[in-house]
Design goal:
This protein is α+β, with helices and mostly antiparallel strands. It is about 30% helix and about 15% strand. Strands 2-1-5-3-4 form a five-stranded mixed beta sheet, with helices on one face. The protein binds FE2/S2 (inorganic) cluster (2 copies).
């Protein structure tokens, strides 16, 4: 019964909100905070489109309750860019055509960032394995793997990615 008060930091901003015990994190993010960059692609917790970082690790936000993130730090796709600069992984998806319709992209990118944290130089197979919880209906996996590889090559140091083909 009743709502519960949670305090959570999302994309660097602290929030305190009353939520229903059954509210899913993804709905809290989208409906309460307006973080519509995080999307819902299924109702079976298997597409990964809703992936965010919870205390630095990727989770499917449709499989977490809002009350469970009380006291935690959440990063969504909207918090990845810093000072107007795309995150190196976002940049790499952009440059390597890692998206078609773009629906799976926020989750793919969040998952890829987490993957590269553990394994900064993954093989194609390791990338595919790391992203296997994220489905792309456009079957753009080839370019997605290429994008993650490119991001790995660019390192977390960024910089070296400038100078596109204009
Ligand atoms: S919406 Fe969360 S896994 Fe599909
Ligand atoms: S780009 Fe369309 S679902 Fe992946």
């Amino acid at each position: 019964m009743g709502t519960r008060r949670i305090s959570v930091t999302v994309d660097g901003v602290a929030y305190s909100d009353d939520v229903e015990p059954r509210t899913l994190l993804v709905h809290y993010l989208r409906e309460r905070l307006g973080k519509t960059g995080t999307v819902v692609g299924c109702d079976t917790s298997n597409c990964g489109a809703c992936t965010v970082h919870l205390d630095g690790r990727s989770v499917k936000s449709c499989s977490v309750l809002a009350v469970q993130v009380d006291g935690s730090d959440v990063t969504t796709i909207e918090g990845l860019a810093q000072n107007g600069e795309l995150h190196p992984v976002q940049q790499a998806f952009h440059e390597n055509h890692g998206l078609q319709c773009g629906y799976c992209t926020p989750g793919m990118i969040m998952q890829a960032v987490d993957l590269l944290k553990d394994n900064p130089d993954p093989s194609d197979a390791e990338i595919r394995e790391g992203l296997e919880g994220n489905l792309c209906r456009c079957t753009g996996y080839q370019n997605i793997v290429k994008s993650v590889k490119a991001a790995a090559g660019a390192g977390s140091v960024s910089a070296g990615v400038a100078g596109g083909a204009a």
